[in-house]
Write a structure and sequence with these properties.
The complex is a heterodimer.
Chain A lengths: L1 H7 L14 H7 L5 H13 L1 H14 L4 H11 L3 H22 L11 H11 L4 H23 L4 H21 L13 H9 L11
Helix pairs in contact in A: 1-8, 3-4, 3-8, 3-9, 4-7, 4-8, 6-7, 7-8, 8-9
Chain B lengths: L18 E10 L2 E11 L2 E2 L11 E6 L9 E8 L4 E6 L3 E3 L7 E9 L4 E4 L4 E3 L4 E10 L4 E10 L12 E10 L4 E9 L1 H4 L14 E8 L5 H12 L5 E9 L2 E10 L2 H18 L12
Parallel strand pairs in B: 1-5, 4-6, 5-8, 6-9, 7-10, 8-11, 9-12, 10-12, 11-13
Antiparallel strand pairs in B: 1-2, 3-4, 12-15, 13-14, 15-17, 16-17
Helix pairs in contact in B: 2-3
Classes of the chains: A mainly alpha, B mainly beta.
Chain lengths: 209, 291
Amino acid sequence: MSLLLQLSDSALPTGGFSHSFGFEQYISRGEIHDAATFSAWLRVYTANQLTHTDALAMRLFYEGLPEADLADRVVASTLPAQLRAADVAMAKRLRTIGVDALGVPRTDVELAHPAIEFARVARHFDVPCADAIVGHLSATVNTLTQNAVRGIPIGQSDGQRVVTTAHAWIEDACRRVWTLEEGDLGMVAPGLEVAQMQHERLRARMFMS
Amino acid sequence: MSSALGFRAVASGPDAYAGTMNLSVGRAGGRSRPVRTESSGVLRLMKPLHLDDSGQVAYFVVNPGGAYFSEACRMDVEVLADANLLLSSQGATRIYRTPRGPAVQEAHFTVRSGGRLEYVPDQLIAYRDADYRQVTTITMAPDAQVFVEEIVTPGWDPDGTPFTYAGMLLRMEVHHVDGGLVCADNVRIVPGDIGAAIDGIGYMEGASHMGNVLILGQHVGDAYVEAVREVVDTSGLTTAGVTSGSRHGIPWVMVRALASSTDTLSAMVLAINEHDRAVTTGQGRLHLRRY
């Protein structure tokens, strides 16, 4: 439990602080401008990206899918260039923390995604898969909401209300991940992805993705 | 059946297919020519054409109207070394209601060294209660060239309600001939699950049509990607994104656009194709007589 709390602390320098994963594009289009519109985006993001990439990659990692294949699939399935760069950079930091601070054995598997590195640390400490998924998804939702608080901006209380509402979406993602198949890995919702691609050309931006 | 890539809808065994097609083209005497052309069931291959003087061979696949009631079709296409194939369809692929399970299309393309594939089918239209799964795999040599596009749209509904199809899963994977995944595009639109949100943020965002273009090959460098961005910028499509990458030594660029008509998306696709041809084969703009 304390390990999960440590890993899920938004202060942990995983680099999530600098990424909006596409919602900044919606801010620039005027489509995200308050807690309600951010919440609508976060719900779709949780039901798609966090379910089909993050949660499913963690499940497949725990199930023993060869790690090199899993990394290859995750990187190849992440089409928006900024997202790929963000995932690899965050994965790198988390792997370093795992090795240097937590005593997780070194590995030379390709760096692909922070969800996989979260799973690697959690599995090393015998954290059950379902708990690890909740931990990683909660951490991501918290970080994204903190970024929305700064980026839109919205108030801290509004942000916490969004996080509270998001608990149900995370639980839903955790239920649905067990019904998915390997072939569902990386499945996207089209609008989310178009915005992530468009962000590459956003002129004035606070976030790297 | 579960392959290494695991997908519930892929049919198993040759009898499971309502239609199959096996096409292989090679190059001889300065021209691309058929090596093997077989089709069975509901899929038909028209006779080969040479639409210009480039030596490229063009084939049109016929999907008779009403096909795919819950059936699976499979296309196997191989472009041998240095051959150049244009593959299109004669009219839109229409998927009607599928009460006995999803309609499935599997397409497997192999493009050998120096080969070139242009896969430019007409749009796919999913009508009320249609459930559709499409799995496309492309296996290519690092010095091959690939241009693929697709446009998908909901069909007309008697009530005038958009998005009455049951679901669409579109998966495309590109593999290096020596192994390794270059890129994979996996889109899922299930209106029943999403409800009113299908029009909202993240999903179709008010659009009815989705168009995708994927181009791979050593010619896809920074200047090429910039040129594609310019074409997309001038297309008038506001919900369109361009991104690029390179993996296992094969560079690629991908365009995804949401719109409310086939015409605007087709115009963008053809303009991108025109640029692609200008920097590769020198062929002029593609004319399929249907736009």
